[in-house]
Design brief:
The protein has about 160 residues and is mostly helical. About 80% of the residues lie in helices and about 0% in strands.
């Protein structure tokens, strides 16, 4: 259960890093809009809250999908080959985040926002860095050798 919590923590950290620049804008704008609304109804508050947290929601969804489809298989591969280390995780996470962002920009036809790809790289590095620290703590707290551990839930080994 701790590995699931560590995985979700890594996803939230990476999602927040990717969304942070946009959160400043949406939180400020939604606070201003809610302040100017008439009566401060609950529906106005809910809409303002949704708008404020929308970048975090989108970013976490992207990070979660990437972590499941790329991060967990990559963790398994690196651990099986004996290459798992904090530096390797962070570099591979940064490259993965950068590439996902570039592909998304190309698919959307956006050619002048490649700074956005840097957010993907930072998000990927933060996600994988958090994940590698959590995996290291789990290894140190158990008696199982590192090369036999799996990023999959207990009892579900591949190979």
């Amino acid at each position: 259960m701790r590995d699931v919590r560590s995985f979700l923590q890594a996803v939230l950290i990476g999602g927040f890093v990717g969304a942070a620049p946009f959160l400043w804008f949406t939180i400020g704008l939604s606070t201003y809009a809610f302040d100017k609304s008439d009566g401060g109804r609950v529906s106005d508050f809910a809409q303002a809250l949704w708008f404020a947290l929308l970048p975090l929601t989108i970013s976490c969804a992207i990070v979660l999908a990437a972590a499941i489809m790329i991060g967990l298989p990559l963790t398994w591969f690196l651990r099986r080959r004996g290459y798992a280390s904090g530096g390797v995780y962070i570099v591979s996470g940064a490259w993965t985040g950068l590439l996902i962002s570039i592909v998304a920009l190309l698919l959307a036809g956006i050619s002048d926002a490649y700074w956005f790809a840097l957010l993907g790289a930072f998000s990927g590095a933060a996600t994988s860095g958090s994940w590698s620290r959590s995996m290291r703590r789990l290894e140190l707290s158990s008696n199982i050798p590192a090369d036999t551990k799996s990023p999959l839930p207990a009892g579900e080994r591949v190979g």
